[in-house]
Amino acid sequence: QVQLQESGPGLVKPSETLSLTCTVSGGSISSYYWSWIRQPPGKGLEWIGYIYYSGSASYNPSLKSRVTISVDTSKNQFSLKLRSVTAADTAVYYCARERTSLFDNWGQGTLVTVSS
Amino acid sequence: DIVMTQSPDSLAVSLGERATINCKSSQSVLYSSNNKYYLAWYQQKPGQPPKLLVHWASTRESGVPDRFSGSGSGTDFTLTINSLQAEDVAVYYCQQYYRSPQTFGQGTKVEI
User: Fold this and answer.
1) Is A31 a residue whose pLDDT tops 90?
2) In Å, how far is B16's CA from the nearest CA of chain A?
């Protein structure tokens, strides 16, 4: 069973860059698509974007200008960078395995708070 | 973007009774070439990530109890939980995966 684990700072200052990494264990990252999804406290889910092991990526147009997702197949990891954050970016960030645009395997999520 | 609208926002159901959650898409999510609806349902329990329950509008994921069933057509879909159990208390989300960006409904909270 594939397991995913998010890691990264829980607190980011406004205007700075949010950086998270997802480590995939129990399976190779060199198949499937791998996504980031976020959930503001008490609110719904927003897909941020995905990456394929080849490095091909796709982003939600609402965040595209600020987001970069990358992959490191040697470490079985993929990463998220979100630039110029504001309080509106405060959320639980999940990494997930994407299967035909469905999300069938999720990490536990990590809360990132944007505050000075 | 395709907007997904769920109703109700919350509902309280007695143990053993039926819960019905509705989801409406702002446009069709039917792919005509394979006649499949690109509509999924997720369950999110407190403090946990979402769990995929149903895809293709009515196909249960492996291991999902058969008291969960999905149905619908056109732009209107339903998740039914028959004989509600205590462990079914959660927020349920629909998701369309017909067109990028994939979008979710706002969620429906099911309580006892």
Assistant:
1) no
2) 28
